[in-house]
Amino acid sequence: MKPITAILGILALAASISAQDTCTPDQVIVSLDINTKFADQMQTDVDTTNNSIDPSGPVYKNYRALLNQYAHDVQCTINATQDQQTQICAAYVNFATSQLRFLHIADGLRFFITNSHGENEGKMHNYIQTYKSALEGYTSRIKAAVPLCASQIDDAYAPLAKQLASLTQDYPAPSSSST
């Protein structure tokens, strides 16, 4: 019951962050930390569920929660000092590293063998495309708040973009003849 209470508390905090017109730098860092924890949890969940996609399983629930966070977090103006921008950039680099670790799971041979064909192939392609779009929007909102270190955001995002492009090739959209 503790994990459910903790997740509900995190989601309540995230909802308060997303409903504001102005966010404090601390709220942005909390958002990045929350999303880092979701990605870390997804990595743990995938490792313990035979590396397969289960819409009722914890990895899919964390995936949906992460997408929700991306879609709704940091929908606000962020006014940050130079020091605060540096802190946000450092939090983003940590966030991006966590996301990349999670995405590398889909590169694993066992996961690929399980999910690279049939219905799962199309699902994976859609999951990746949806994740990519949500991550791009979230990253753009963070980057807009930190002009003094925006290049760090670009540098941290570049491996994510490369990994997402690779996964899109590994899990192509289903052909119209197979649907």
Describe the structure.
A two-stranded parallel sheet has the order 1-2. The protein has one domain. It is mainly alpha-helical and about 180 residues long. The termini are far apart. Helix 2 runs parallel beside helix 4, helix 4 packs parallel to helix 7 and helix 6 runs antiparallel to helix 7. The chain contains 7 helices and 2 strands; from the N terminus they run αβααβαααα. Keywords: Signal.
How many strands, what sense, and barrel or not for the largest sheet? 2 strands, parallel
Distance between the termini: 40 Å
Number of domains as seen in the coordinates: 1
Alpha-carbon Rg, integer? 17 Å
Q: Hey, roughly how much beta strand do the residues contain? A: under 5%
Number of strands: 2
Name the poorly predicted regions.
1-18
By secondary-structure content and strand pairing, the structural class works out as: mainly alpha
Broad shape? elongated
How do the strands line up in the largest sheet? 1-2
Order of helices and strands: HEHHEHHHH
Fraction of residues in helix: over 70%
- Our count of helices gives 7
Mean residue pLDDT? 77
Keywords for this structure?
179 residues, two-stranded parallel ribbon, disordered N terminus, 74% helix, mainly alpha, signal, 2% strand
Structure, briefly:
With 179 residues, the chain is mostly helical.
Please specify the SSE layout and strand pairing:
Layout: H1 2-18, E1 22-23, H2 25-47, H3 58-72, E2 77-78, H4 82-104, H5 109-115, H6 118-144, H7 150-170
Parallel strand pairs: 1-2
Helix pairs in contact: 2-3, 2-4, 3-6, 4-7, 6-7
